[in-house]
Structure formats: structure tokens, C-alpha cells
Amino acid sequence: MKYASIAWTSVFVAGAAGAVAFGAIAHSLKPDVEITAHPKAQVEKVAASATPAPAPARKIDFTPSDRPIPDDDFGKVVAEGQRIFNDPAKYAKAYVGNELRCASCHLDQGRKPGSAPMWAAYLSYPAYRSKNHHVNTFAERLQGCFRFSMNGKAPPLGDPVLVALESYSYWLAQGAPLDPKIAGRGYTKIAKPAQTPDYHRGEAVYQARCALCHAADGSGQRARNGASAFPALWGDASFNWGAGMGSIKNAAAFIKGNMPLGQGCTLSDQEAWDVAMFIDSHDRPQDPRYTQSVEETRKQFHDSPQSMYGQSVNGGAPLGSRSTPNGGTLRAGGKL
């Protein structure tokens, strides 16, 4: 079996707002590298291995105070933002195409350091983003989450949904120093992998440590009342190809510091890289920026070893070539 692997020369991961983390990585693709890992043996090895000791926690300069939302007109908007954050498919359904929640990537209702907390994100904008080549406001950054991570469409600037989410983030950030590099921002730093990230090793980690919550096929889990309990990590119900979690380095950093849920920093760095490779080597809804050519779309928006878009996995069709159109439930309902 042959598979495109990544050769790493240097890595630096720095957190950023929203569902993405930004890093600078020097690397190159080396196609047709033989894979000799055996999934069953790897699963048994991972399951039997001792859990590594948690990494030392980094110093956090700020933690949002656990205080009640004010009972006034401003507080009503903050509370609405919190509701949207925790269940956008219900409270912002006009703009959401899947059942992921903002809190799926920004844990503890956007409060948890090292999980792209919203209080740190609020302090980080306006900022230039290479993703769209201009200085973004915080509201614009939120628009991107709806378009890519929520596989929906961007609320217009000034829309009550954006105002509510921005108000909630501002409320969380009250009392924080005005420092866009504040500790706790973005995702946990992760060292470069000792070995090239590997699909089969990642599959073993996934089945041993992730499948219980996210299902063996990555489709997630539902509660008894039918509501989404754990998000889909690939497939039509997940984030689309334009989302930040579609970047291997972003996914690895998030996984290292936060997964399995409640057991952050228990996977080794190598395991985090490997399982991120595995997750991002599955198809998902099409990138909204699709040019009608997978090759051209990769060239314009995914020209990095960190993206598996347009790459063949295990001899299959290039990822993205068989993706369903973006928009999910919005498209199905004729609202996109």
C-alpha cells in the first residue's frame, strides 16, 4: 500500500481565534512512501500502552470570572450569545448546515485555555489573516466559523447572531489584559513529530481512544433524545474542507491539549499527529471556495502538506472529488 506522507523540517504551533490555530511549518511532500503498519496490531499496541504523564500546564495569565450574566439589556444579548454558542443549530439555524456546536472546538462554553477560548479570541482582533489576505475584524472571524466549521453561510455583519456572539465573547474577556498573545490563547503547543504522521498508526489511536465518543466511522454520537452528543469528525455531518480543523497541524494541537475529552495531554505528541492525520484523511463536505476543479481548489486554498484535500488515500479517489456540496441542511432545505 502506498500513501503520501509528510516530511517535517521544523514546526511551530501558535493558537488563534475561532476553530483554527495558526502555525508556521517548513515541510515537503514525499509521495509513494511505503506503509508497513498493520491496523489490528497497532490497535492492540495502543490499547496496551501505558498512558503518558500529562504535560506540565502552561501559566495562564487570565481566567474568566465565574459570575452570573448581568440582568439587564446588555445581559440579555450576552445570554443569547451563550445560547447560540452552545446550540447554534437551534438558535442560529438560518446560518448553520450541521449539528456541530461552537463549544465542540471551544470547550467549556468558550472558557477553557488551550482550546481557542473566546475571551482570548476577542482580544486578538482586528488581525491580518493569510486565509483571506486581509485584516479581519472579530465579527468577520465569526463569519468564517459559520461558513466553514458549521458548513453553513455567514450571517451578514451587524446581524443579531453575530452581535450576540461578539457580546458573549466580550463579556468573557472583561478584566483580561489587552494582549493578543495572552497565555491560554489558541491551542496547546505541540512539538514536531518524531516520525512522519501515519494513517495506520492514527487509525489505531482513533479506535483505542476516540471511537467510543465519536463512533468507529467518525459519525459522532447522539443522546437518547436525538440531539448530537459528540460531533461527527468526518462525513456529511461534519465541518467542510474549508474549516481550520481540516489542517493536520491545527487538529493535532487541539487533540493534544484537549482529547480524549477530560483527558487532555495524555496522548503523546506522536499519537496526536497520527490521529489528526487519520481524521483529516477522510472526506467531508466540499470547500465553499470550490472552483469546480479539485486540482485548482487545492492550488489556491490547500497548497500545503497540512491539507489532505485533493490527495489520494490508500489508492482511493482524490479527497474532495466526491465531496457532497457544502451547505448541509441549509442546502437540503433550499436556504443556501
From TrEMBL:
Gene Ontology MF term list: electron transfer activity; heme binding; metal ion binding
InterPro entries (alphabetical): Cyt_c-like_dom (IPR009056), Cyt_c-like_dom_sf (IPR036909), Cytochrome_c-type_DH (IPR051459)
Coiled-coil parts of chain: none
One Pfam family hit: Cytochrome_CBB3
Record's keyword terms, sorted: Heme, Iron, Metal-binding, Signal
UniProt-annotated stretches for the region Disordered: 282-336
Signal peptide start and end residues: 1-19
Source organism superkingdom: Bacteria
Gene3D superfamilies, sorted: Cytochrome c-like domain
Biased composition (Polar residues): 303-314
Cytochrome c domain sequence ranges: 197-283
SUPFAM superfamilies according to UniProt: Cytochrome c
Identification of the protein by name: Cytochrome c family protein
Protein species of origin: Candidatus Burkholderia verschuerenii
